[in-house]
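FORM 12-B: Structure-to-Sequence Request
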């Protein structure tokens, strides 16, 4: 039976995700989902100890790589995560829309590692041996993470099959129970540790995919990585605690502690709810329009933009896209000046259009560099200060 506190949390997530899903025009929501992928990459890699500056991630997306080999590798790693996250729908389709399968987990790992630089395709064992990480292949050696000794490599297929059999969404008709399953499977996948390296990223991408299949990702407007990174020590402690053996006859029926798994699930679902709530707050229409206006006013003072720019940014945020001729009508400017204003916003990355087509509408777009002004708190304060100072 599903514990009451987990059922209540799952219900709050379902309700909060529904509110977030309906809060924006679909085209605007898609633009913001694209904008958020670098943040998801930043936080997921940060949990693994790789701190890549958001501006370096932005440069990598434009094929602008650091001359420093280590920084360049970090940029490529971030770019790989962004690419895999963007292609989760295709990977899910290939897995029969079931993220709870070895096929899906291996496909995610393969896609991620296939794009990594050589430097990150190796790992070192506790014994000091340097081993290659083969994209998509299960480990063939033993591993220990902290105090946890993962299952022996030879029994991995059996453990993964048991995980698949235990979490089959099509057999669970209670939607709230399926939401809780996402949290439980996140831990169980971590406990099995199927790959030599990259397990954390696969787990978090799996979780995003599982929320997507349940219709709870709000079209990509939130993900787990930011919340887990902001509570990294608690996250890792909760994972480790759920690794412990059953405490007594009242602590579940398996080898592992059910009480600790419930505690992990509570933490995980509270983190998910916190992230949905944060994005709902940030994307509140009045507040978002106020920040857009503040950005325009600042750049008007700096003599970089015209005040009429706001009307264009307001329109694409609310409508998702506008016809090109609308810029002239919205701003009251001459055709020539309106086109210059639109060109300026295209160059700034705040408008987008289909490449090579001069007739398609202008669409909403949100570049990383404007994150502190438009999505405050998305990145750590120190990173946001850097972005403001370099903007």
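FORM 12-B RESPONSE
SEQUENCE OUT:
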């Amino acid at each position: 039976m599903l514990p009451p506190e987990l059922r209540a949390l799952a219900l709050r997530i379902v309700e909060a995700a529904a509110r977030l899903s309906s809060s924006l025009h679909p085209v605007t929501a898609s633009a913001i989902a694209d904008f958020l992928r670098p943040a998801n990459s930043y936080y997921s890699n940060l949990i693994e100890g790789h701190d890549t500056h958001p501006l370096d991630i932005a440069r990598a997306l434009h094929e602008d790589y650091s001359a420093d080999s280590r920084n360049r590798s970090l940029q490529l790693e971030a770019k790989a995560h962004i690419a895999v996250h963007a292609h989760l729908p295709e990977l899910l389709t290939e897995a029969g829309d079931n993220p709870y399968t070895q096929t899906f987990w291996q496909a995610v790992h393969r896609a991620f590692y296939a794009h990594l630089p050589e430097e990150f395709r190796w790992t070192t064992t506790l014994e000091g041996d340097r081993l290659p990480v083969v994209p998509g292949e299960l480990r063939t050696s033993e591993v220990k993470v902290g105090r946890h000794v993962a299952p022996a490599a030879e029994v991995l297929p059996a453990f993964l099959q048991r995980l698949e059999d235990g979490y089959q969404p099509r057999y669970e008709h209670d939607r709230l129970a399926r939401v809780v399953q996402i949290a439980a499977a996140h831990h169980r996948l971590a406990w099995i540790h199927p790959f030599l390296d990259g397990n954390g990223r696969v787990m978090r991408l799996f979780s995003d995919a599982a929320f997507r299949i349940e219709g709870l990702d709000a079209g990509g407007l939130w993900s787990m990585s930011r919340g887990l990174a902001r509570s990294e020590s608690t996250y890792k402690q909760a994972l480790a605690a759920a690794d412990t053996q059953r405490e007594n006859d009242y602590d579940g029926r398996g080898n592992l502690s059910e009480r600790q798994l419930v505690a992990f699930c509570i933490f995980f679902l509270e983190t998910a709810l916190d992230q949905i709530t944060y994005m709902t707050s940030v994307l509140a229409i009045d507040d978002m329009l106020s920040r857009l206006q503040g950005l325009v006013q600042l750049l008007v003072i700096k003599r970089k933009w015209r005040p009429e720019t706001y009307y264009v940014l307001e329109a694409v945020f609310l409508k998702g896209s506008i016809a090109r001729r609308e810029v002239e009508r919205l701003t009251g400017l001459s055709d020539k000046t309106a086109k210059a204003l639109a060109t300026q916003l295209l160059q700034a990355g705040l408008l987008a259009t289909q490449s090579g087509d001069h007739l398609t509408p202008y669409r909403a777009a949100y570049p990383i560099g404007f994150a502190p002004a438009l999505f405050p708190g998305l990145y750590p304060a120190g990173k946001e200060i850097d972005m403001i100072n370099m903007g």
